[in-house]
Hints:
- The structure holds two protein chains of two kinds.
- Helix content of chain A is 73%, strand content 0%.
- By secondary structure, chain A is mainly alpha-helical.
- In chain A, helix 10 (212-235) packs parallel to helix 11 (247-254).
- The longest helix of chain A has 37 residues, at 86-122.
- Chain A is elongated, with a radius of gyration of 23 Å.
- By secondary structure, chain B is mainly α.
- Helices cover 76% and strands 0% of the residues of chain B.
- Chain B has helices at residues 2-29, 34-39, 45-54, 61-73, 87-122, 127-141, 144-156, 168-174, 184-214, 217-224, 229-266, 272-281, 285-313.
- The radius of gyration of chain B is 24 Å and the shape is flat.
- The interface between A and B is large, with 44 and 54 residues.
Amino acid sequence: MEAQTSDFLTVKKSSPRIEAFKMFLKRLFKNKAAVIGGLIVIFIVFVGIFGPHLVKTDPYAQNLLNKLQPPSKEHWFGTDNFGRDIFTRIVYGTGLTLKVGFLSVLFGGVIGVIFGIVSGYYGGIIDTLIMRVMDVLLAFPGILLALAIVSVLGGSITNVIIAVGIFSIPTFARIVRGSTLEVRKLEYVDAIRALGASDMRIIFKHILPNILSPIIVQGTMRIATAILTASGLAFLGLGAAPPTAEWGAMLSDGRSYMHNASHMVLFPGMMIVIAVLAFNVFGDGLRDALDPKMKQ
Amino acid sequence: MTKYIIRRLLQTIPVLFGVSILVFSLMFLIPGDAAQVIAGEGASEQTIENIREKLGLNDPAYVQYGRFITNAIQGDLGNSVRTGRSVMEEIEVRFWTTFELAIYSTILAVFIGLIAGVISAVRHYTLTDVAIMIIALFGLSMPNFWLGLMLIQWFALGNLPFGLTMPDWLFNIVQMKPSGWGEWNQMVLPVITLGTGGAAIIARMTRSSMLEVIGQDYIRTARAKGVSERIVIYRHALKNALIPVVTVIGLEFGAFLGGAVLTETIFAINGMGRLTVTAISQRDFPILQGTILVISLLFVLVNLLVDISYKFLNKRIDLN
Lengths: 296, 320
């Protein structure tokens, strides 16, 4: 009897969700590109959090006698027009870049997911209204919407996060609406509703957990887009105020010194490419692992 | 078909209406007094009042919007608060430059993207495929403003990475101008800068679309009948694989219009993108509203044309 109970418990422990998660991890670790992308993401996050405590130089310390120095043993990425160490500034800028990327996606993601679920779940006039608003937001190509918002709100990190976040809302809303429409039609949702569950309970307890995969994938990919957009805004002078170490702004500063100090442009740009690439590759891998059907 | 076009046109109206509201609302997003912000710090009360009067900011919001939309429909987007010139005139002078830049970038992106995508799909899971997809991933992840600066560095200044300099004989052949628009050697670098990201997206899309089509029964049947591989790929597969790619091309053209803001700034091209950036730095909000409105309208129109072109490309699409 005891053995039977033990067997029963063992079976119960490996629930379908745990099994699915194990399968997901197995598929993810099989994908070499995704693993490399993931490791780079972890490294970037590590640098963003602990980097400023590990480098000893001050990112804002000016030394005009030492300005525009090429890469050397003392200054791995050279110095800028104020003699500041570019490597240190890049390390400090990593945290800022990640902050803008994560927070803007979180902001846009939360609002987009709410709009998407409400739209897909309730349908009708609510759906039409929300989706038309999303169409309007999508009618602004490229970084134009974020540019317009931040240009009137004024250049600051908070405003960049808001602008880039708003830029992400329609993408999340459309994807989540599509997924909600699929899940809503399933029989188990009808059964839960018949049992008297409230709309909120159905949405948060039964629909949301089942549409998390596309949200996670989209979130990862959008961080890459957010980093690109935010650095583009900073390049135009619409990001953090000087002398903040921000990759896009550092690139912009380097423009005037390109003929004799190309490293001022090269290294911040390379960092943006590496960060965006890592999030894109990791996002691709997550998508393939979470939904193998979408791989093609 | 006519019904479909009429319905799509009607669906566009609320979007355009929404775009106009959002563009108009930009003025209300300005923290504090818009007239004060436009006039700048230290401006006299009289100057601020003049701006308020000129822009009609004393009227209620709905009156202001009514005036904005009525004038916009008639092609009047107000006047620049800096130069006093008509916003439409300012845009007209620069519109074709940005349009040309976006068109040439689209042509480059489609040309490279399609070739790379088809080669990648035909040789899928080979070294060529992997190499093309890695390059595409780089193209996708590269900020175009950085690529632009690097291209200027290499092909306009002749400075290669790590302190190397391009040999004179080679530099004389490949040398490009770092700024301006009109001559071919001024246009090459901006077009590559803007088109690269799009080429990467089209290559990825073409590859996945081709792979999907190649796996279908009718392709297997064609092969079984002994049709040559070249005909199978180019006549049967590519034709159907192109349908989803068309959407991406339309979206990319729009993205290029938006992306022109950065490219035109880097290469000092006097187009709508640069006009937008100048308007932001000068806090010239009528110009900013005008450029954003025109670019968005163009984007909506391009998407409409793409949707309609679907019908001609694929009869299987359910227009309902």
